[in-house]
Amino acid sequence: MSTYKAEGTHLLADLSGVAADRLTSCARIEALLRAAADAAGAHILHSHFHAFGPGLGVTGVVLLAESHISIHTWPEQAFAAVDIFMCGAAAPQRALDMVRQALAPTHCRVRSVQRCAVDEAVME
Protein backbone atom coordinates (compact mmCIF):
# COMPACT_ATOMS: atom_id res chain seq x y z
CA MET A 1 0.00 0.00 0.00
CA SER A 2 1.30 3.43 -0.90
CA THR A 3 1.65 6.14 1.69
CA TYR A 4 0.35 9.62 1.03
CA LYS A 5 1.24 12.96 2.55
CA ALA A 6 -1.56 14.73 4.38
CA GLU A 7 -1.67 17.36 1.65
CA GLY A 8 -4.18 17.74 -1.09
CA THR A 9 -6.82 19.75 -2.85
CA HIS A 10 -10.39 19.90 -1.61
CA LEU A 11 -12.89 21.12 -4.22
CA LEU A 12 -16.35 22.22 -3.15
CA ALA A 13 -18.68 22.61 -6.12
CA ASP A 14 -22.23 23.97 -6.15
CA LEU A 15 -23.93 22.97 -9.41
CA SER A 16 -27.17 24.79 -10.22
CA GLY A 17 -29.55 24.47 -13.15
CA VAL A 18 -29.14 20.71 -13.46
CA ALA A 19 -31.97 18.80 -15.14
CA ALA A 20 -33.91 16.94 -12.45
CA ASP A 21 -33.66 13.60 -14.25
CA ARG A 22 -29.85 13.75 -13.90
CA LEU A 23 -30.11 13.98 -10.11
CA THR A 24 -32.42 11.12 -9.12
CA SER A 25 -30.79 7.82 -10.11
CA CYS A 26 -28.53 6.26 -7.50
CA ALA A 27 -27.05 3.85 -10.03
CA ARG A 28 -26.19 6.57 -12.57
CA ILE A 29 -24.74 8.94 -10.00
CA GLU A 30 -22.68 6.18 -8.37
CA ALA A 31 -21.35 5.11 -11.80
CA LEU A 32 -20.52 8.77 -12.57
CA LEU A 33 -18.60 9.36 -9.34
CA ARG A 34 -16.72 6.06 -9.65
CA ALA A 35 -15.77 6.96 -13.24
CA ALA A 36 -14.70 10.43 -12.06
CA ALA A 37 -12.46 8.87 -9.41
CA ASP A 38 -10.89 6.62 -12.06
CA ALA A 39 -10.37 9.60 -14.38
CA ALA A 40 -8.59 11.42 -11.55
CA GLY A 41 -6.23 8.51 -11.01
CA ALA A 42 -7.65 7.76 -7.56
CA HIS A 43 -8.01 4.33 -5.98
CA ILE A 44 -11.56 3.38 -4.99
CA LEU A 45 -11.98 1.59 -1.67
CA HIS A 46 -15.77 1.51 -1.31
CA SER A 47 -18.90 3.44 -2.23
CA HIS A 48 -22.30 3.88 -0.66
CA PHE A 49 -25.31 5.71 -2.11
CA HIS A 50 -28.87 6.28 -0.97
CA ALA A 51 -31.92 7.44 -2.96
CA PHE A 52 -34.63 9.23 -1.01
CA GLY A 53 -37.42 7.92 -3.24
CA PRO A 54 -38.87 8.32 -6.74
CA GLY A 55 -38.13 11.79 -8.10
CA LEU A 56 -36.20 12.75 -4.97
CA GLY A 57 -32.52 13.33 -4.37
CA VAL A 58 -29.53 11.10 -3.86
CA THR A 59 -26.69 11.23 -1.37
CA GLY A 60 -23.53 9.22 -1.66
CA VAL A 61 -19.83 8.88 -1.19
CA VAL A 62 -16.97 7.13 -2.93
CA LEU A 63 -14.22 6.43 -0.41
CA LEU A 64 -10.76 6.67 -1.90
CA ALA A 65 -7.27 5.78 -0.75
CA GLU A 66 -6.69 9.48 -1.51
CA SER A 67 -9.81 10.60 0.49
CA HIS A 68 -13.32 10.92 -1.02
CA ILE A 69 -15.86 12.21 -3.52
CA SER A 70 -19.36 12.90 -2.21
CA ILE A 71 -22.58 14.28 -3.66
CA HIS A 72 -25.93 15.45 -2.38
CA THR A 73 -28.67 16.23 -4.91
CA TRP A 74 -31.91 18.19 -4.77
CA PRO A 75 -33.73 17.61 -8.10
CA GLU A 76 -36.62 19.80 -6.96
CA GLN A 77 -34.15 22.69 -6.80
CA ALA A 78 -32.05 21.61 -9.83
CA PHE A 79 -29.04 21.58 -7.49
CA ALA A 80 -26.15 19.28 -6.57
CA ALA A 81 -23.41 19.81 -3.99
CA VAL A 82 -20.19 17.95 -4.83
CA ASP A 83 -17.21 17.53 -2.52
CA ILE A 84 -13.92 16.18 -3.90
CA PHE A 85 -10.85 15.82 -1.69
CA MET A 86 -7.77 14.04 -2.99
CA CYS A 87 -4.18 13.83 -1.87
CA GLY A 88 -1.18 12.22 -3.50
CA ALA A 89 -0.88 12.21 -7.29
CA ALA A 90 -4.65 12.12 -7.90
CA ALA A 91 -6.11 15.01 -9.93
CA PRO A 92 -9.39 16.23 -8.36
CA GLN A 93 -10.02 18.75 -11.13
CA ARG A 94 -10.29 15.88 -13.64
CA ALA A 95 -12.98 14.31 -11.46
CA LEU A 96 -14.87 17.59 -11.23
CA ASP A 97 -14.63 18.14 -14.99
CA MET A 98 -16.25 14.74 -15.58
CA VAL A 99 -19.05 15.44 -13.10
CA ARG A 100 -19.73 18.86 -14.64
CA GLN A 101 -19.83 17.42 -18.14
CA ALA A 102 -22.29 14.69 -17.13
CA LEU A 103 -24.61 16.86 -15.03
CA ALA A 104 -24.42 19.88 -17.37
CA PRO A 105 -25.25 22.62 -14.84
CA THR A 106 -26.10 26.10 -16.09
CA HIS A 107 -24.04 27.55 -13.21
CA CYS A 108 -21.16 26.15 -11.20
CA ARG A 109 -19.40 27.76 -8.24
CA VAL A 110 -16.18 26.05 -7.17
CA ARG A 111 -14.15 26.73 -4.07
CA SER A 112 -10.71 25.18 -3.74
CA VAL A 113 -9.02 24.61 -0.40
CA GLN A 114 -5.46 23.38 -0.01
CA ARG A 115 -5.36 20.89 2.87
CA CYS A 116 -2.22 20.01 4.84
CA ALA A 117 -0.97 19.11 8.28
CA VAL A 118 -0.46 22.22 10.38
CA ASP A 119 1.84 22.74 13.34
CA GLU A 120 -0.25 23.25 16.49
CA ALA A 121 1.58 26.53 17.18
CA VAL A 122 0.09 28.12 14.04
CA MET A 123 -3.42 26.70 14.30
CA GLU A 124 -6.15 29.26 14.82
UniProtKB/TrEMBL annotation:
The UniProt note on the cofactor reads as follows: Binds 1 pyruvoyl group covalently per subunit.
- Check the record and name the InterPro entries matching this protein: AdoMetDC_C, AdoMetDC_fam_prok, AdoMetDC_N, S-AdoMet_deCO2ase_core, S-AdoMet_deCOase_pro-enz
Natural source organism: Pseudoduganella umbonata
What is one GO biological process annotated to this record? Answer: spermidine biosynthetic process
Positions of the catalytic residues:
S67 (schiff-base intermediate with substrate), H72 (proton acceptor), C87 (proton donor)
Top-rank EC class of the record's enzyme? lyase
Q: Which GO terms describe its molecular function?
A: adenosylmethionine decarboxylase activity
Keywords, sorted A to Z: Autocatalytic cleavage, Decarboxylase, Lyase, Polyamine biosynthesis, Pyruvate, S-adenosyl-L-methionine, Schiff base, Spermidine biosynthesis, Zymogen
Q: PANTHER family under this entry?
A: S-ADENOSYLMETHIONINE DECARBOXYLASE PROENZYME
Extract the Pfam families matched here: AdoMet_dc
Function, as annotated, reads:
Catalyzes the decarboxylation of S-adenosylmethionine to S-adenosylmethioninamine (dcAdoMet), the propylamine donor required for the synthesis of the polyamines spermine and spermidine from the diamine putrescine.
* Subunit composition and interactions: Heterotetramer of two alpha and two beta chains arranged as a dimer of alpha/beta heterodimers.
Any one of the GO CC terms: cytosol
Q: Pathway, per Swiss-Prot/TrEMBL? A: Amine and polyamine biosynthesis; S-adenosylmethioninamine biosynthesis; S-adenosylmethioninamine from S-adenosyl-L-methionine: step 1/1
State the name under which the record lists this protein.
S-adenosylmethionine decarboxylase proenzyme
Catalytic reaction annotation: S-adenosyl-L-methionine + H(+) = S-adenosyl 3-(methylsulfanyl)propylamine + CO2
Q: At what positions is Pyruvic acid (Ser) found?
A: S67
Query: Which gene does this sequence derive from?
Result: speH
